[in-house]
């Protein structure tokens, strides 16, 4: 995510710009003979032709349904015309089958902007859509979700009594968030379980952890990075000072359960490992415009004198995948663990009107070797899974494997 709401997963979870050429945001510019009519003008003026010639869009079916609602649906005329327009735009955004492209009517737009600019009550987990199911990317350390035992990969079937099968990510997030001290009930299905379970979580003001360090007795230095906030580059720099003072040349960078965050943070951190000019990530706009390559700033402190292992799992997403992919493709680090989540799309936020907005996917992230993060995720160089038995025994075979490789 950039400061202009360019998201690299979320945080989120957490967030969006192609300029919409029309006030209605249907993306169509209608009319002929240089008349710059917008779709909104057509929808609110029934006297215009229903069909647009020369390969344009035929709005006759739209108006037929509109009139059927007026004529047949009980109290149909009591629904404001403008609310129907918002519903039509929401359907248009949904037709892309992209869970990260969402239209926000006035109230939802207000809530979304508040959620990315200030504190909020929630349970402390990042969610996304995986295999068309609302899925936990990662619970954040020391949050209500983490303490309740929610795990990366858990499928959320219901939020309180609302089924999630037709919810957008942003709508799901709005239902999970709420006033601190209130409860939310999540119906969860976990791989390996025979049936869903219900987990009740009490909301809190979420304070997102960033980074921990550890100098192990065997001399290996560990940096655990929990997110890519605007503070992460500074804290990572401090962690590297600790690494230098320790004298260790063996580093484990733990990105497990890290749902991502700011794009700039991932580029800044990658720059400590890569010479200047090396590719960190490629922003692919498809046929809309030329791709953009983000390159290392060349701090290059962690050179070939260091041995580096990066730990990843299904909770590593977005900026985590960007950093891990950059280090892997530039032969700086070995990836150990499990396949990452696969959140590699870029969203930007567009104001459609003064009170509404559209969060739309505009590009995909590619690793330096042009692996599409959103389509494939990242495969570890060495796969190590953590079983339910490992968790119960409080074992960490992924960390143990990283230590083994460094020794």
Automatic annotation (TrEMBL):
<dbReference type="InterPro" id="IPR041489">
    <property type="entry name" value="PDZ_6"/>
</dbReference>
<dbReference type="InterPro" id="IPR029045">
    <property type="entry name" value="ClpP/crotonase-like_dom_sf"/>
</dbReference>
<dbReference type="GO" id="GO:0008236">
    <property type="term" value="F:serine-type peptidase activity"/>
</dbReference>
<keyword id="KW-0378">Hydrolase</keyword>
<dbReference type="InterPro" id="IPR004447">
    <property type="entry name" value="Peptidase_S41A"/>
</dbReference>
<dbReference type="GO" id="GO:0030288">
    <property type="term" value="C:outer membrane-bounded periplasmic space"/>
</dbReference>
<comment type="similarity">
    <text>Belongs to the peptidase S41A family.</text>
</comment>
<dbReference type="GO" id="GO:0004175">
    <property type="term" value="F:endopeptidase activity"/>
</dbReference>
<keyword id="KW-0720">Serine protease</keyword>
<keyword id="KW-1133">Transmembrane helix</keyword>
<dbReference type="GO" id="GO:0007165">
    <property type="term" value="P:signal transduction"/>
</dbReference>
<feature type="domain" description="PDZ">
    <location>
        <begin position="108"/>
        <end position="177"/>
    </location>
</feature>
<dbReference type="Pfam" id="PF03572">
    <property type="entry name" value="Peptidase_S41"/>
</dbReference>
<keyword id="KW-0645">Protease</keyword>
<dbReference type="InterPro" id="IPR036034">
    <property type="entry name" value="PDZ_sf"/>
</dbReference>
<protein>
    <recommendedName>
        <fullName>PDZ domain-containing protein</fullName>
    </recommendedName>
</protein>
<keyword id="KW-0472">Membrane</keyword>
<feature type="transmembrane region" description="Helical">
    <location>
        <begin position="12"/>
        <end position="32"/>
    </location>
</feature>
<dbReference type="InterPro" id="IPR005151">
    <property type="entry name" value="Tail-specific_protease"/>
</dbReference>
<dbReference type="GO" id="GO:0006508">
    <property type="term" value="P:proteolysis"/>
</dbReference>
<keyword id="KW-0812">Transmembrane</keyword>
<dbReference type="Pfam" id="PF17820">
    <property type="entry name" value="PDZ_6"/>
</dbReference>
<dbReference type="InterPro" id="IPR001478">
    <property type="entry name" value="PDZ"/>
</dbReference>
């Amino acid at each position: 995510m950039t400061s202009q709401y360019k998201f690299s997963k979320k945080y989120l979870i957490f967030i969006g710009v192609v300029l919409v050429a029309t006030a209605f945001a249907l993306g169509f510019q209608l009319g002929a003979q240089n008349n710059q009519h917008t779709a909104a003008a057509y929808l609110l003026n029934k006297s215009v032709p229903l069909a647009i010639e020369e390969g344009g869009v035929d709005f006759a079916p739209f108006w037929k349904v509109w009139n059927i609602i007026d004529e047949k649906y009980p109290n149909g005329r009591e629904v404001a015309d403008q609310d129907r327009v918002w519903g039509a735009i929401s359907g248009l955004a949904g037709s892309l089958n992209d869970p990260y492209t969402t239209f926000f009517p006035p109230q939802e737009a207000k809530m979304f902007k508040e959620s990315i600019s200030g504190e909020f009550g929630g349970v402390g987990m990042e969610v996304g859509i995986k295999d068309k199911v609302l899925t936990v990317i990662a619970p954040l350390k020391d949050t209500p979700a983490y303490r309740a035992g929610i795990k990366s990969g858990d499928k959320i079937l219901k939020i309180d009594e609302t089924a999630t099968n037709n919810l957008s990510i942003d709508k799901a997030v709005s239902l999970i968030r709420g006033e601190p001290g209130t409860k939310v009930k999540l119906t969860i299905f976990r791989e390996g379980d025979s049936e869903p379970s219900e987990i009740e979580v009490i909301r809190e003001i979420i304070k997102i952890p960033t980074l921990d360090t550890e100098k192990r007795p065997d001399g290996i230095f560990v940096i655990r990075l929990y997110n890519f906030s605007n503070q992460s580059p500074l804290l990572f720099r401090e962690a590297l000072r600790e690494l230098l003072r320790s004298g260790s040349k063996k580093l484990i960078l733990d990105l497990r359960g890290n749902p991502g965050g700011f794009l700039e943070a991932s580029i800044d951190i990658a720059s400590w490992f890569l010479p200047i000019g090396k590719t960190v990530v490629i922003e692919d706009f498809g046929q809309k415009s030329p791709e953009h390559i983000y390159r290392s700033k060349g701090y290059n402190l962690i050179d070939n004198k260091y041995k580096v292992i990066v730990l990843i799992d299904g909770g590593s997403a977005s900026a985590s995948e960007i950093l891990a992919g950059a280090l892997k493709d530039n032969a700086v680090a070995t990836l150990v663990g499990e396949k990452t989540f696969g959140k590699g799309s870029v969203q930007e936020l567009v104001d459609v009107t003064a009170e509404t907005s559209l969060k739309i996917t505009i590009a995909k992230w590619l690793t330096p070797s042009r692996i599409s993060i959103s389509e494939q995720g990242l495969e570890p160089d060495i796969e190590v899974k953590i079983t339910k038995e490992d968790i119960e025994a409080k074992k960490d075979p992924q960390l143990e494997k990283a230590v083994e490789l460094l020794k």
